[in-house]
Design brief:
The complex is a heterodimer of chains A (195) and B (262). Chain A has 195 residues and is of the alpha/beta class. Chain A contains 6 helices and 9 strands; from the N terminus they run βαβαβββαβαβαββα. Chain A is 30% helix and 32% strand. In chain A, α3 runs parallel beside α4. In chain B, the strands form 2 sheets. Chain B has a 5-stranded mixed sheet. Chain B has 262 residues and is of the alpha+beta class. The chains are: A alpha/beta (195), B alpha+beta (262). The complex binds iron/sulfur cluster. The site of iron/sulfur cluster has 11 residues of chain B, from α4.
């Protein structure tokens, strides 16, 4: 379980070093995305107006308010990643995204893409939105503004984390590992309960 | 939560507990939202039979309150039309807020408990109509299997609320009442109190841990609420509560005094 303090954009070399259970703290820029952002990009054919090469993308629908032409944060939290599984391989292959930040994890297709292109899934503590909001220093830019709260957000962050590497580029998925171990314990648990 | 974190030995889980506790402290200190999903507003209202009140007016005021929490304060509106998916940006709408009424014989208090229920945990809820022949075994297995299937999704460790008995609708309400109890409290009936402890031990032996990333604490508590049921039925419902387990209580007395609590 190693600790990494990484600055974006992330390189393939750095991401390939990461193993499940490692702890990552991010500096620099992260991009906020959600269901509609990705439907808009991939299903409706709109190119992101900013480079996502080496990017870390967080699954979020932030509460922001617009003051003049600036966006101010109110509360930024993380949403369940499972719903957006089909987009992760595309983000990695087409745009060079290297890290997905979310809660709940993703599935096999995403894991395969992480292995192939050098990506990872970083688990945040779901529900800990106060900490997350504090670590976002500034909303630098909102692209596809008409989609808000599911636009494409560029956040400047400081000491963003700690994030747990829950899926790595070596084919490991901590969620399925934990679930498998739990299933292994079931017969013993059933017995104790008289099932 | 602090007590639970002390039981944890898994390094990933310990790290997660640290963030959870830091989040609670920060949200408290700076009056920030503890979690961005402020959910759907649910009110459990207990009206004392000696408290003179127009319940229709209370219902209207609670709806207005939920709306104001969203329009004037930073509640995020999560309510939406089930087909058009249009969000009115008020947290309410047709059928919302959810109001449950109970009447307490001889009491002169109006007790209002508000639960803002987020979706990550609510989506992991489950209900099943078992038969008498399935026995209590089927109920216990259903609880353990449901928690295992939910894994990391409901932001564990929270509270597993279990309803047993009644009808399809009552059993779901019982499960909701179960998550609203003070964390770690027991059912007044010793049989069900023992079952709560048994299921708590079973669930925590799964090792799913905080945020489903492994650890000793998968849930803080199992709460059971129950009712008599039909001779041909044995319904069970599970309502999952996430770690922030938010709720707020107002007890209103006849002289107008209001006591705020949890
Ligand atoms: S499940 Fe609960 S803690 Fe997690 S994001 Fe939803 S409301 Fe917040």
């Amino acid at each position: 379980m190693a600790n990494y303090n990484l600055t974006t954009p992330l390189t393939e070399e750095v991401v390939r070093k990461l193993r499940v259970r490692d702890v990552v703290t991010l500096q620099g820029t992260i991009f906020g995305i959600r269901d509609l952002t990705q439907i808009y990009i991939f299903d409706r054919g709109n190119e992101p107006p900013v480079s996502l090469q080496g990017a870390a993308c967080i699954h979020t629908a932030p509460s922001l308010k617009k003051v003049g032409d600036r966006w101010e944060k109110i509360c930024v939290g993380t949403t369940t990643s499972g719903r957006m599984d089909r987009f992760t391989p595309l983000l990695m292959e087409k745009y060079g995204v290297r890290a997905i930040i979310g809660k709940g994890g993703q599935y096999q297709a995403s894991l395969d893409a992480m292995k192939k292109f050098g990506g990872c899934y970083l688990a945040i503590v779901g529900g800990a939105a106060a900490v997350e909001t504090k670590q976002i220093v500034e909303v630098e830019k909102v692209y596809f503004e008409e989609l808000h709260p599911e636009a494409l957000y560029q956040f400047r962050v400081k000491d963003f984390g700690p994030l747990t590497v829950a899926m790595d580029s070596h084919g490991n998925n901590l969620y399925t590992e934990v679930k498998k171990a739990a299933e292994g314990k079931l017969p013993e648990i059933y017995k104790r309960l008289g099932i | 939560m602090k007590k639970a974190s002390e039981r944890e030995t898994n390094p990933t889980a310990k790290e997660i507990f640290k963030t959870i506790l830091a989040n609670v402290e920060l949200a408290d200190k700076e009056s920030m939202l503890i979690c961005q999903d402020t959910g759907l507003p649910i009110y459990l209202v207990k009206v004392g039979t000696k408290f003179q009140v127009d319940c229709a007016k209370i219902a209207a005021a609670l709806k207005e309150g939920a709306k104001r929490a969203t329009v004037e304060h930073p509640f995020r509106s999560s309510s939406t039309h089930p087909i058009t998916r249009v969000n009115p940006q008020t947290s309410v709408g047709e059928g919302l807020p959810i109001l449950y009424w109970d009447f307490i014989e001889g009491s002169d208090v109006l007790d209002i408990l508000m639960i803002p229920k987020g979706s990550g945990s609510e989506n992991m809820s489950a209900m099943k109509m078992f038969t008498p022949a399935d026995g209590v075994k089927a109920l216990k297995k259903f609880v353990v299997d449901t928690v295992l299937q939910s894994g990391s999704n409901p932001c564990p460790p929270g509270v597993i609320g279990v309803g047993i008995g009644g009808t399809a609708d009552l059993v779901s309400k019982l499960a909701k009442e179960a998550i609203a109890r003070p964390v770690g409290s027991h059912n007044h009936d010793p049989y069900f109190a023992k079952m709560e402890d048994e299921l708590l031990e079973a669930i925590n032996s799964l090792g799913i841990g905080p945020m489903g990333l492994g650890g000793a604490v998968t849930t803080l508590a199992v709460h059971i609420e129950w009712a008599y049921t039909h001779i041909t039925q044995n319904p069970i419902a599970i309502n999952t509560q996430c770690w922030p387990a938010r709720r707020a209580r107002a007890k209103i007395y006849p002289d107008g005094k209001v006591e705020h609590g949890y």
